Amino acid sequence: MRDVNDSSGLGLRERKRAQTAEAIHIAAAELVLENGLDETTIDAISARADVSNRTFFNYFPSKEDAVLGIDEGAVAAELDKVHDTQEDPLAAVFDLIYAIFEASGGKQRKELSRAVIRKHPQLMTRQMARVADLEDRLSEIIAGWLRDDERFADDTDAERLEQARLILGICLSTVRISMRRWAGHDHSGSGAGSSDTPDPRKIYERAIATLRTVMEKLS
Q: Where exactly are the structural domains of the chain?
């Protein structure tokens, strides 16, 4: 979700949309922390965010998506930014997945999102499922990167697409592990700005390094 405090490059309509999406996301997350996931209703979320149920569904298809802050428009915008060529496809895949999570989770509400997922870890499954829903689109993007990589020059388009799906699957598994660590990190007693609170990006980078090490040992 876009940072609503950063209005650079946004028109009035886009700013209002970002603010409304953020308000719904915050309302949903706070209500879940207060009352629990099952007890939180779309009616209650809409009331706290001061929007109608119809407006709610204009932004989020489900209660769970609102709690996580999954903004379909922001995710689509991230995919539209993808470049045709990548020097390091593996790192690029992680960057792409991370960008989707950033678009979905709300940069300004990292602590709130972490608290919700820690209380209801089943929401992590929904977060990962959102990326899995994009498997075909992501695989096509990755296959395009492989097409421009000389290491895959002799492969057919079908082979590169199959390889792209394999790369995506491996990266998603690695991300799933890193997200569990991110959500389960014990920072009780630490403030929101504490240096003990893990940066999700650093956890991603550590996961990438671990994957590379394992691949080198297996090669």
A: 1-69, 71-218
